[in-house]
Amino acid sequence: MTTTTAFVSATPVLASLDIARSVAFFVEQLGFAQVYLQQGSYGIVEQGAVQLHFWACADKRIAEATGCRIRVDGIEALYARCVNAGIVHPHAPLAETPWSTLEFAILDPDGNLVTFHQAMADAV
């Protein structure tokens, strides 16, 4: 019997007013792959070791009060992609933080705030 626990990963579950639109946004804008899609119920996208799940929600205020953070490598390239797509949050451009990360944020079509971050020691 194991006496310790190792936390392995976390999977954000974001509110979505339109599951198909949410899945398409992450696939088309950010290069995720669609794993599962049931309109009006649940959706999953995946990029490398990161999965995002979406649950059907009828209240936009819930999505607009929700967010997640995703650690990445190569944040400058991702930022350039997001700038070109016009999806960078106007108040969250790429910047250094006091907690030693380089990060920026986007809003998905439902208002979920998704922040991408990279440790400063890892930034090129």
UniProtKB/TrEMBL annotation:
Q: Which GO terms describe its biological process?
A: response to antibiotic
Q: Which family is annotated?
A: Belongs to the bleomycin resistance protein family.
InterPro entries xref list = Bleomycin-R (IPR000335), Glyas_Bleomycin-R_OHBP_Dase (IPR029068), Glyas_Fos-R_dOase_dom (IPR004360), VOC_core (IPR037523)
Q: Which residues form the VOC domain?
A: 6-119
Q: Which SUPFAM superfamilies does this UniProt record tie to the protein? A: Glyoxalase/Bleomycin resistance protein/Dihydroxybiphenyl dioxygenase (SSF54593)
UniProt keywords (A-Z) are:
Antibiotic resistance
Determine if Membrane is one of this entry's keywords.
no
Q: Gene3D superfamilies in the record, alphabetically?
A: 2,3-Dihydroxybiphenyl 1,2-Dioxygenase, domain 1
Entry protein name: Bleomycin resistance protein
